[in-house]
Amino acid sequence: MENKEIKIILSERGKGLANVGAFKYRFIGSRKNGELLKWRCTKNDCTATIYSGQEKNIVLQSNGQHHHDGNSVHKIQRQVLRENCKRRAEESMSIQPLKLIRHELLRNTELTSIVHKDLKTVRKAIYDRRRNTLPELPKSREDMFLQLNLIKTQSDFMFNGQQFIHIPEDDSFVCITSDDNLKFMTTKCSDLFADGTFNYAPKYFMQLYTIHGFKNGYYLPLVYFFLFEKSKEMYKKIWLFLKELCMKCNETEFKLQKLHVDFKKAAHQAASEVFEDVQLLSCRFHLGQSWWRKINSDPVLRLAYTKKDDALGNWLKVFFGLAFLPSHEVADAFVELISVCPDEIACTEFSDYIFNNYIDDGSQFPPNIWAEEPSYNPRTTNAAESFHRTYNSQFYKAHPHIHLVIIVLQETQAETITKIQSIASNNHKKISVIENQKINFTIKAYQEYSALKNVDDLLKYLFKIGNKYLGKKI
């Protein structure tokens, strides 16, 4: 048996086993001052042993015989796949089981005996390992807060020794952030971005609401809230809580200067009432989404919008260019759009919706909130929305286990810290080539239009830019 190849595989308990042919051996101890490693057959009543060097790659000596059948190649390969996936599942709690399995099959090309039914067994093993790793799933809202209040000071649920889970006295929401994040937010950020996601909020919660900062071209998720509702009162509570937390953790006053937020009146009203001098802005991405949803709700508009070279569809697309005008010019541009409105009832309903909600001085969201001539500024981007798409992709089912969500946010926090360190070193993140080209195109088109500013050039400009920034399904 000497000089036979050894392969080290994992046992069900995660220990290393020596696999030689059809047999498996567990480590016993060292011999000859550590030069030899002794291994014994994993069958309890079998005394067969082998010896290897420190490299654990070949059998140097062997003693005894096996008086039992060996393992099939299929059985050993299934164990290799199962245990490797279990180990990776524990290291990366949020990756989908099937993705882990596929990655391992791609990485380990020697697993040629695996059959399809093995995948179900391996997936179950992954679920079992994760269930044993995480705390017990809360069975109610009350149980959840009891757990969170117990674990919030435990090292596994902190970040770099800083408390990461914060809960108000009335248990009305959960706040996830760190002292470092709060200090950065209050001392380095003039622009903050707030946005929510719903399907992948933790179980028992309606929404994950995230506060991002912007500095040197970097977008940083700084504060997360798990919310039960999306009312003005709830948004006010989280802003007031955040002000208190900044003072408590860093003795710094939180003065919100500019808040970029989506088109939800409750969010606007809450921020204005808590921060009297805040400037409320809405990004063009959210504007496009709001208008797209309105178009999509009407079958006539929806069909026209999806067609190429359709008169009604082209007219609808021009509206998306309004956000790239100075706010004081939007009302006049809207009048010009109405003058070329196709003769359709649906057009009248759509234009009334735009006027009543986005154009009129007394509307919910007047142009000064969402319109501005094109420039290099954070309003152009959908960074918060991009973050939530990435966050959502971390989970393989809606409303995941709250402890799993916290682990994912801890992993995200590790990246946030690297961004804070980069900014502290005065590093600047360059805009992507594609995004840079898009912004340059938009600025150039506006400059060409503004040189003349006649009606024909206005409509051409709006059509050109509107088609670059169309609302669409995400």
Q: Looking at the structure, what is the overall shape?
A: elongated
The radius of gyration is 30 Å
Count of helical regions = 17
Structural class of the secondary elements? alpha+beta
Protein name: MULE transposase domain-containing protein
InterPro entries: MULE_transposase_dom (IPR018289)
Pfam families: MULE (PF10551)
Entry summary:
With 474 residues, the protein is an alpha+beta fold. The chain contains 17 helices and 15 strands.
Account of the 3D structure:
The chain has 474 residues and is an alpha+beta fold. The chain has four domains: 7-63; 75-133; 141-282, Nucleotidyltransferase, domain 5 (2-Layer Sandwich), CATH 3.30.420; 284-377 and 432-466, no CATH class. Helices cover 46% and strands 16% of the residues. It contains 17 helices and 15 strands. It has helices spanning 73-91, 97-107, 116-133, 141-151, 179-188, 232-250, 265-274, 284-296, 299-306, 311-318, 330-339, 345-359, 367-370, 383-392, 402-424, 433-450, 455-466; strands at 7-10, 16-20, 23-31, 36-41, 49-52, 59-63, 158-159, 162-163, 165-166, 173-176, 191-197, 207-215, 218-227, 258-261, 279-281. The strands form three sheets. It has a seven-stranded mixed beta sheet, with helices on both faces. The protein has a six-stranded antiparallel beta sheet with strand order 1-2-3-4-5-6. A hairpin with a 2-residue loop joins β7 (158-159) and β8. The chain is elongated.
